[in-house]
Amino acid sequence: MRAERFRWLLAALLLGWGIAPAQSAAPAPFILLDAGKMAAYKAAYIKGQPVEVAQVKAVLRAADKALRQRAYFITGKSQVPPTGDKHDYMSQAPYSWPDPTRPDGLPYINKDGLRNPEAAAFTDEDNLKDLFRDVKTLGVAYYFTGNEQYAACAAKQLRGFFLEPATRMNPHLNFAQAIPGVSTGRCYGMIESRDMVEIPDALALFSGSKSIDARLVGGLKDWFRQFTTWATTSKLGLEEGRTRNNHSTFYDAQVIDFALFTGDETLARKVLETMTLARLAVQLAPDGSQPLELARTRPWNYVTMNMLGWVRVARLAEKLKVDLWNYTLPDGRGLHPAIAWFKPYLLRQKQMDRPDVVPVSNHAVLTLYHLASPHYADLEAEKVFALNPDFARVPWAL
């Protein structure tokens, strides 16, 4: 009784001093992740099922490592954006190289698929990706354990990267993928933010946490709303939306995801119905191949990457009651044949006509198969996974 009276007195004093206690955020819905599959996996983990226990333990080890990581932010970079504001994201196009025929190397030229080590000196992309990875890992760890220290660490990282005035990133990518001697920023920079869709689902993983409070979630929604406005109204954002290859796929995935996160279902539906569906005829051939990606110097990497983007869009379409998984054009083009196209390669019955100029692992394509196989019985997924016994099938993969 005394403790209860003390809590009421403390709350009254805080309000009297103008200090409102932090309010827990309302439970956030999953957008890309499947709530039912996550719950089933958690139930198996609690029962001590060996596979689930082993995978969750691996996540907890990674989350414990994330607890010890430095704060991620972009304002500590050595380069200065054209605006003079280090809160602006910067990167250099990875495939641009000095022109050997010119004394100063300018303007840089493109060597598709070959990364220029110079680009690694721009650290904003690394900070962005590290943030996505760690917040997602901490979210999964919290979901299975309820350990508040994971949520507290994620909250600190999210506030620092997106909200704190001293370190926040401005909500645009005007200076991403610059090419020396050509441009200070290009539309293609949005490919570097493609995994930002991990953040809304990470917040759902933290449902019930005291650390991920209403103020933090509200601030993040404001930031994502501003970023979405930039993506759909700025010159570079509109250019990215008009691209034809994998860039357009991930553009749609981001805009639809962020629109759903911020409560703008009208925008999400508009992008899906007026932009996404038209891309099927542009990107996919009737036999399921992806001519635009196969023309690249890293064809296997890009066909896999693009189709993972399509899987994300298909999952987002479910939220809008649109079945993109089985949507088919009159000539047969659609996601089903595009994903089935991978089957003979994964069953080791065929090899690519041209190998990638840089070797690539099969982890991404196995993730693609894992996500798509529940929708298509003819993929022979179990045979594929039997050939790759070390691949872990987990419901938090995106």
UniProtKB/TrEMBL annotation:
<dbReference type="GO" id="GO:0042597">
    <property type="term" value="C:periplasmic space"/>
</dbReference>
<protein>
    <recommendedName>
        <fullName>Alginate lyase domain-containing protein</fullName>
    </recommendedName>
</protein>
<feature type="domain" description="Alginate lyase">
    <location>
        <begin position="77"/>
        <end position="350"/>
    </location>
</feature>
<dbReference type="GO" id="GO:0016829">
    <property type="term" value="F:lyase activity"/>
</dbReference>
<keyword id="KW-0456">Lyase</keyword>
<feature type="signal peptide">
    <location>
        <begin position="1"/>
        <end position="22"/>
    </location>
</feature>
<dbReference type="InterPro" id="IPR008397">
    <property type="entry name" value="Alginate_lyase_dom"/>
</dbReference>
<keyword id="KW-0732">Signal</keyword>
<dbReference type="InterPro" id="IPR008929">
    <property type="entry name" value="Chondroitin_lyas"/>
</dbReference>
<dbReference type="Pfam" id="PF05426">
    <property type="entry name" value="Alginate_lyase"/>
</dbReference>
